[in-house]
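Section handout 9: paired folding examples.
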Amino acid sequence: MPQASAISEFHTALGQYRNYRYALKIEEPERTLYLAVPVVVYNTLFQLDLPKAMIAENDVKLIIYNPEEEAIVQWKN
């Protein structure tokens, strides 16, 4: 089940993001943390209801990038 695996990886990444954001809040509160996401993942997985809701609920800031072009496509605050 690729989708179940992708959701599991999403939850792992979200948990790590939250932990790092908390640590930065203590150590370097002026910094802003972003989660970097390949454009293909953003256009597929991140358009599903659960990931969209969790990104909004946790106020996750995103950098969407194209790995082939090694370029940032979009910053989402």
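Moving on to protein 2 of 2.
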Amino acid sequence: MTRSDLEQAIRKEVEDLHDFIAGWFRGDLENDDQTFNGSFTARLDINFRNIQPNGGVLTRDDIVGGIRSAHGGNPDFRISIHEVSLLGSFDHDRLLLAIYLERQTAARNTIPADNDRVSSVLMRRADDGRLTWLHLHESARS
């Protein structure tokens, strides 16, 4: 794959995951295990870690449990993704490091509710092209 192809794949994956999260929080999606696991849980590596803007570290189980229980809890929540950029690819394009800007509006559990985050993500690319999230580091941007 070319660098441009890899960057497009990452952009689509980041957008798709965040579209799912926002739709889940709004209650737009079916509240069932098949929808949740297929669209969310399956994307995260078993050892996934998320460093939150406040410095807290969440495991895959923390993230899955928190998001699963939040279905329909924030009907006004929106996320938009901007400035996705591939920083590097390693191990014959199997490991991908990227950065992106996440803009949240009406986030009930974040202060301020309208906020921006600069995030770096490490993903693994499988032979079939599927991307799995290994690590996510979110930093608040004022």
